[in-house]
Design goal:
By secondary structure, the protein is an alpha+beta fold. It has 3 domains: 160 residues, no CATH class; 136 residues; 67 residues, no CATH class. The chain is built from 8 helices and 8 strands. It has an 8-stranded mixed sheet, sandwiched between helices. Helix 6 runs antiparallel to helix 7. The longest helix has 91 residues. The protein is rod-shaped and about 160 Å long. The chain starts with a helix and ends with a helix.
């Protein structure tokens, strides 16, 4: 199968998908830089902004132009170039951009000769955003300890890495100059292993910082959730007391507030979960080996980082549960309102039926009186007519008395005929 398809790959008739080359290159973007010992690495990261999406590339291009080296191309997301005394590495990610300064060579003291100090201070002061992460890594070949006042002993952690060919120290703290620090003792690591290790340590610091941004969002959301939960409890009590109409309006307003809160926190919480998983992956990739009596890096992260992530997850669960409770409350209240409306409609129909019956009875009474009135006037007219004619032997009052039932019968029959015509006119097809 492979031999049959292989020649076709060179055919000029084949057309690549527009994304094939881009997606294939994605696996090879941002490669680690092999590092020889000794070296110093400084890393800075800042957030990307929508209103100035190209600010980072312009900033890097300014330094490259000053140093006479090629700058990043238009639309580039990665650029690595050697400068006079440094290797400059720029990366653009979805949410942030970063720059790495690598100085190959010995320093006067570990973590003392920061690589970024070898760039023009005027240019460095124009970093295109607030700093998300600032890390300095020093790699030395000799065995050493960080007891030079650089790391705090109460939170210092260390372990063997790289199959025991390296040792790492850090305290995961921001020092007075704003940088976090890692010190690596190289006891026989290759340049590739050193480069991978430095990149993993930088990413460990960066992504735990990004993940913890969700903790600030969670703490800000917690009071709002507490207020909404209390409001829902009160509304639930009002529902049991029959205040359905007012409760439904308040519930809909509260549901809108919960959806607004979800829109505010969902992205940050999702990003924190993704960053937290990267932190766990980087910790696992270090393959630490314990040094007796010393705290390892992953132990400090598990003790402080994981509880923060669980807090974020707890706030997210509270929000989802509140949204679910509100949704069910709205459904129940809607059923209650519908039931109340149906009961009101039934009462209204019953009232209308009673009123209709009363109207029919009144109409029948009026019709009866009408028959009597018509008969009375008819008999009177008959009496006037008989009074003007004289028949010998005929008693006029007797004739009027005989005419009364006949007139009543004729009037009643006429009223019935009118009713039948009305009924036939209302029937379908007439």
């Amino acid at each position: 199968m492979a031999s049959r398809n292989s020649p076709a790959l060179d055919s000029p008739m084949l057309e690549d998908h527009p994304l094939r080359s881009v997606l294939g290159q994605e696996l090879h973007e941002r490669p680690f830089v092999p590092l020889s010992t000794p070296c110093q690495v400084t890393y800075l990261a800042w957030p990307e902004t929508d209103h100035e999406p190209d600010a980072g590339r312009a900033w890097i291009s300014e330094l490259c132009d000053d140093q006479g080296v090629p700058g990043p191309a238009e639309g580039a997301r990665f650029h690595c170039v050697p400068l006079e005394r440094l290797i400059l590495r720029w990366e653009r990610h979805t949410e942030f951009s970063s720059v790495t300064f690598i100085h190959q060579g010995s320093s006067t003291a570990p973590n003392d000769d920061l690589a970024h100090r070898r760039t023009p201070s005027a240019w460095l002061s124009k970093v295109p955003g607030p700093i998300l992460a600032a890390v300095h890594v020093a790699v030395e070949r000799r065995p050493m300890t960080p007891a030079r006042g650089l790391l705090q002993s109460n939170s210092c952690c260390t372990s063997f890495v790289g199959g025991g060919r390296g040792q790492v120290w850090t305290d995961f703290r921001h020092h007075p100059d704003g940088f976090s620090r890692f010190t690596i003792s190289d006891c026989g690591m290759s340049a590739a292993t050193t480069g991978r290790l430095v990149q993993r340590l930088i990413e460990l610091e960066l992504y735990q910082s990004l993940a913890l941004h969700g903790l600030h969002t969670a703490r800000a959301a917690a009071p709002k959730l507490t207020q909404l939960e209390a409001g829902l409890l009160k509304l639930s009590a009002d529902m049991t007391e029959g205040q359905a109409a007012d409760s439904l309006s308040a519930l809909l307003k509260m549901s809108a507030q919960v959806e607004k809160l979800a829109a505010q926190v969902s992205f940050r919480f999702s990003a924190s979960r993704a960053y937290a998983q990267i932190v766990r992956d980087r910790c696992q990739a270090l393959k630490e080996r314990e040094i007796p009596g010393q705290q390892m890096l992953h132990e400090l992260i598990e003790r402080r980082f994981e509880p923060a992530m669980r807090t974020i997850e707890a706030i997210e669960r509270r929000r989802e549960q509140l949204a679910g409770h509100l949704s069910r409350a709205v459904v129940l209240l809607d059923v209650q309102v519908s039931t109340d409306v149906q009961a009101h409609n039934q009462a209204l129909l019953a009232s209308m039926a009673t009123q209709t019956q009363r109207s029919l009875r009144l109409q029948e009474t009026v019709e009866g009186l009408s028959i009597i009135a018509i008969s009375y006037y008819s008999v009177s007219l008959i009496g006037y007519a008989l009074g003007s004619v004289h028949f010998p032997g005929v008693d006029h009052p007797m004739l009027k008395a005989i005419a009364v039932p006949l007139v009543l019968l004729i009037s009643w029959a006429g009223m019935k005929r009118i009713h039948r015509r009305i009924d036939l006119g209302d029937a379908p097809g007439h």
